[in-house]
Amino acid sequence: MVAARTIAFFEIKDWERAHVRKKLKDHRLLFFAEPLTPKNAWKAKTAEIVSVFIYSKIGKEALQGLPKLKMVATRSTGFDHIDIKECKRRKVGVCNVPFYGENTVAEHTFALILALSRNVHKSYVRTLRNDFSIEGLKGFDLKGKTLGVIGAGHIGLHVIRIAKGFGMNVLAHDAKQDRFLAEVLEFRYVSLDELLRQSDIITMHVPLLPGTRHLINRKNISRIKKGALLINTSRGEIVETQALIEALDQGILGGAGLDVLEGEELIKEEKQLLHDARQGQKMKKLIQDHIVLSKDNVVFTPHIAFYSQEALERILETTVKNIAAFHAGKPQNLVA
Fold it and tell me: What is the set of active-site residues?
């Protein structure tokens, strides 16, 4: 019989606690509502397994406060908030949730597209002022338009399926190409440059890696078809913020639908940053974010593309299975 482990959950909500208790009742469980940081890592110093969400930062300092740690189970697909190299050096396994919400994020992507294409956000703000005029609210049909999907993985493919339902033409750019699916779903793989030049709407669905950071930048954003929309539900760092601001100001982009921002974590820390003159670069990002959010052709949601009840349940279920598999000596969904 395998001995019970101490498992610490950070960024955990009440309903999630109840679910986890039922599934992992043979283990000692610790629950914390706040993210894991170097300052509070001591709270989980007895834990062999730690489960976190994306706002926890697990680097060298935090790991030093977790001397018994053997596994990190992130309740997300992305793992850029975890220092993978340091975990490997310390022989700490890292598991993620590779699939949980392809349809969830894809549906939110189209919520952002439709908000922009039919001026839903502008109409709503206008009616709050008791202004029911329609001047300046003329939208455009999605049927016949070209959607450019950067990253045709699980989420990107679901976006393509939805786009086909709207009667859209679809271009895709991805390092890995599935010609069979391209034929079945009737889309075409192209270079990044061709996608930028030909697409009426561009949507990002790539993970944050060294090669995808600032994938859309000041050098290539000018190649985008004039007046196109840019949608980002992946990671804020995929799009260079200054390039985005300039493209919106110059009319290269007709609008942007964003669920993520390059410095989104700074918005929560705004009061602290405003009183710390040493945070120069962070303040610059914060100011840039405020400039983006102030534009009336930008629709922003606060990183909620994944945030449906069904998706949250799938995330938790996979996380519990990851922990159980690791506990049984048969780890799954390892990224480190």
Answer: 235, 264, 303
pLDDT tens-digit series, residues 250-267: 999 999 999 998 877 655
Look up residue 3 and give its two tokens: 């001995």
Q: Are 24 and 320 in contact (CB under 8 A)?
A: yes
Q: Which residue has the tokens 């949507």?
A: 203
Give which of 130, 147, 299 is closest to 225, Cα–Cα: 147
pLDDT (tens digit per residue) in 211-227: 999 999 999 999 999 99
User: Would you call 307 exposed, middle or buried from its count of C-beta atoms within 10 A (0-12, 13-18, 19+)?
Assistant: middle
The 10 Å CB-count burial string (b at 16+, else e) for 230-250 is: bbbbbbbbbbbbbbbbebbee
DSSP 9-35: EES--HHHHHHHHHHTTTSEEEEESSP
Place of tokens 């190409």: 177
- Please measure the distance between the N-terminal and C-terminal CA atoms of the chain and give it in whole angstroms: 26
Q: Residue 5 in contact with residue 29, Cβ under 8 Å?
A: no
pTM of the model: 0.85
